[in-house]
Every structure is written in structure tokens, then in C-alpha cells.
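Appendix B. Raw example, untouched.
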Amino acid sequence: MGIKAAAWKHFGTGLKYWSFRITSYVSGKLPLRFAYWVGTIAGDVVYLTWRRHSANAVSNMRRVMGEHADWQVVKETARDSFRNYAKTFVDFLRFPHIDQEDITKTVDTKYGWENLEKARSKGKGVIAITGHIGNWDLAAAVMGTWGLPLNALADTFEPKKMDDLINGTREKYGLKIIRLETGSLKNIFSALKRNEIVMLLFDRPQPEQVVPVQFFGETAWLPEGPAAIALKTKAAIIVGYCARSRGDKRFHGEFEAPLEYEHLLTGDKERDIQIITQEIVSRMEDIIRRYPDQWFMFRQMLPRTKRNDAEIKRRRFWGAGDSVEVPG
């Protein structure tokens, strides 16, 4: 890399850090309701201008809500998911400026605690599955304040002081960060061997190491990692979430009953990974159906037909539109 390119890179990373630092500081000083109001406006702007991703959100929401759902409701729910994501980003920005007392006031009820204890009682570690729904950072912080031995995969941010700010904040609530880099799988195995909890975000489609599953009645390709790890370690699998309540100032979460998958195994590794993954997906479907406007999936989760694309293109905004007759 030349001197000029290195200088521009240094400038860019510095600008990113200070932009985040200043925005985080301002967000932490603003009244929460006002900060959410600004976030809601930002969510609407992104929905209207980020066309490819808002079309993906509408397409995904159409599958969640069913082919007989009113299109107006579908696209309004997709738009609301952008609004709620913006609020979650506001929470993320404010995170360095809150303490454990703020967190326990926000989420103070341990719904499904007995399910988590049952999963840990097996002594093989727990894979805690959640998705891009509600506020997963808050869920991890709450579990950390409860004194649970929690590990989570996280990206490494550049520059280092940005990483120290973001992941350092997560760590102060008791969360152990496993970096998404060489050696991360070894660290996951070690944590499970110590009977600790490893939290994984599951619903992000990946270009490789995926397995086909039925997701809202259609074939989707999702990561095989959680199932493969469970198959190798015999770890318990539990699905949970932390969703925003009405009024926005409080959240509620739940640990569902541990996923019983042992009796489904066939001895065929690939088939068993697919079976376990399908069981996880079925649990996630139920949660997404309950909180569709808090599911932040702006990627193309399921294949789009010609008819589906034409309908989305016509109906993505608020107007009702007419029927679109395009061969599928």
C-alpha cells in the first residue's frame, strides 16, 4: 500500500471512529423518546431510499405474513421493521452511556429461566440461538448482569479504539467476546466444554457452509454451524429472544424449552445437521410470527419469483396499487 493510500485509510478509520463517538455521546444525552423519534424518521428515510433492501424486507415479510395478507399491512410492517431497527441502533449508540441498573430496569424478568437451567444441567454447554429480532445486544447484557458465563461471536472493528469502545462496552457487562477470526471455533468448543453459554445469531443467510431448510413454507439456505457444533459437542440448544414492548422503554425476553434433537438423529452427519437446523428454524419461525415488525432481515432470505418481484416493485411504498399479472 502506498503512502497516499495508507494516509486515506488512516483518515477514513479515524473519521469513522470520531463519527461514532460523537453520535454515541449525543444519543446518550438526548431524552430517549426524542432519540427514538429521530430514529423513526431515519428508518423511514432509509426504507424509501435503500430500495433494494426495502424490497427484500417486503419480500421476506410477504412470506412471514402469508400470501393472503393484505399488501398494505405487509409493506407497513416491513416499514415498521426499519423504524424498529433504527431504534435498536439508537440503543446501540447509547450503550456505552448506561449502567447495569439501567439494564435491569429495562429487562428485569427472567422468563424461561428454568429452561436455561435445564439446558445447563446437562453439563455439555449451551448454544443459545437468537436472530436479528428485537435487541440481541441488550439480551446479552442482561444475561451478563445475571452472572451467567456467556460468550458471543463478534466482529472486530477498525480502528482498535473503535473495537475497544464497542466490544469493551459489551465486555463490561460480563460478556466474553469470541472474535470472528482464525481460532474462533476452538474457542467455542472450549467454552462449551466449560459448560458455558455461547450465543449465536442464526438467521443471516451465508454464501457457504449452509443447509437447505423449510422456512415459512419455502426453501431457504441457512448456516449449518450451530447444528454442526451441537452434533460434535452434544451441547444443549436453546432458542430465545428479547423483544421491544409497547411504549419502547421496556423489553421482554424468554428462553424457550431446550431443543430435544437426540431422538431425531440418524447417524448420517449431513442429514443430522439438516434435521437439527430445521428444528431451530421452526422455533425461530414462531418468534418471527409473533414480532414480524421487529425482525430485521433486509437481505433476500427467500427466492423471489417474477410475479413476486413485480408486486414488490409496484407496492413497496404506501399506496395500495392494483393487482399485477406477471407469469411466475
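End of appendix B.
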